[in-house]
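Backbone Fold Data
Goal — fold tokens
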Amino acid sequence: MNSYRVFALPHLLALGRDGDARAAAREFIVRTLKLNNANSTEYLVAGTLTSLETLVKAKPDTAGRVQAMKEYLTNAAAKNSPDPSTGDRRTADVQLMNVTAGSLTWGATIAGFQNGRDHVSVQWYYRDPGKVAWTGLPTPSGSYTELPPDGSLGPEGYGRHDYFLARSGQCLHDGSYRVEIYINGKLAGTKDSDFTPGSLQGHRWLDVGVAACAPQDWTPTANALTGFENGYVSPGKDAGVLVFSFQDAAFGGSSDPHVNSSKYLALTMGAFAKQFPSPPKFEQTPSGQSFITLDGANTQFFSYPGGLVEVGAGVRKDDGSVLVGIVYGPRSSFDTPASVSSVLYSSLDLAL
């Protein structure tokens, strides 16, 4: 059978030739698994899912058969087998879906889920504002046998923070996003969300281990110091995103990560006050204390005449270094979660 026959999958399904479509899909999986590369498998599967979504857009009556094909493809990739078995059926009640300019996060309650036994495939999709068919996003998608517990959703809560900017170097665009959660070969849950971050450019500062998005007309900060500070500032110098890495923080510091992050947050805001339009003063500590996915997270707001600063700090799990991320700008740029400074702050993430 010709390996290119996989590209005929949508055509075969549209003609009702489900047996031929399944045979083509199986050959595709066999050849894909021979690559022995999980990333390549995810990219190839995402491309095939995209073509299937295009078919559903053109012929809605094929939705049921297309869904069955998607379940086969994702299960085969998750289990590394062209003839995958199915297991207990699970239902993922997706209660949380958070799209930022740099990452995608989901959380769900999954009754009876068993880490290490159940097989999970998480597939992310994007649809542009013109509402063209959904396109698979391979970068944040993947297959897992373990899901991190999410205590905020109760004892049966699970979820994932899936990187996009950190892996691709690109920011997510305006449009709609969808997550599909497959467990043991069956669709367990799905959720859609719209997101409008505007036109942003991705930056990965590997020397400090942080990634962030910024408007395309912003330029590198003049204060960059390899391995310690990096960032971008607006043309008028009234706004910016700055990141700092204290790589020796693990030596002689507290064993409490929150103590270390608090210490270096205060040090940064004091020692580098001249990098802001005016020296900022502490304003408040928000109720939610989270920064990227770091331990001991500490977030605070500072202010100066006409402007606001949002700063977060946390400790890396791998080496104990402290990362500090700062976004500042006119107070109006923080008005809502969709305002530019709020979008930039939420884009801060680890650079992988």
